[in-house]
User: What shape does this take?
Amino acid sequence: MQMIDLREQARRLGTLPKELDNLADEVDRVRAGEISLPVREIAPLAVWAGGLSIRCLLFLDILADSQYAVMKDGAEALADMAETCVQVNTASCLCSDAITGRTDALIYKDADETAETARARLGEASTELRAAADRYRGFTRTLTLRLASSVTRAEDRRLIEAALTGRAKAQGKAGAVPSPAVAPEQTAARRSR
Assistant: This one.
C-alpha cells in the first residue's frame, strides 16, 4: 500500500468533471452539424475521450494501491470508479463508431446517407460523458468531505493502521520461514568476494 496525498488526489479528481462536460459539449456541437468530414470532425473527440479514459484508469490505479482502498467505503468507491472508467471508455468507442457510421455513407450506396447513425452514436457518447462527470463530482465531494472531517479522518486512520499492522504480521509470518542452511565456508566465500 502506497501512502499518497489524498487532498491532492481529490483536487485532481475534481478536474475531471469539467473536462468531461467540455468534451460532451464539443460532442453535442459536432452532433448538431452536418458531419460532412467525419474523420476530421469526430476523430479528435474519440482521441480526447480516449485520453480521458486513460486518466480515469490511472486515478483508479493510484487510489486502489493507496490507503484509500482500506478507508471506510473505499473499496466500494473504487468499484464504482471502475464502472465510471468504463463509461468514459464507452464514450470513446461510440465516437469511433460514429466515424464508421458516417464514412459508410460516403463509401457504400446502400448506407445511411444522412448523418443520423453518427448523430445517434454521438448522442450516446454525450450521455455517457455527462453521467461520468456527475459520478466524478460525487467521488470528489465524498473524498473531500471525508478529509475535512476530523471524525472520519480518525476513523480512516484506524482502518489504515489496522491494514498496515495486518500486512506487517503477514510479512512477519512469511519471513519466519526458515531459510536453507548455509555452510560456514559458503558464508566466508561470499564475504571474500
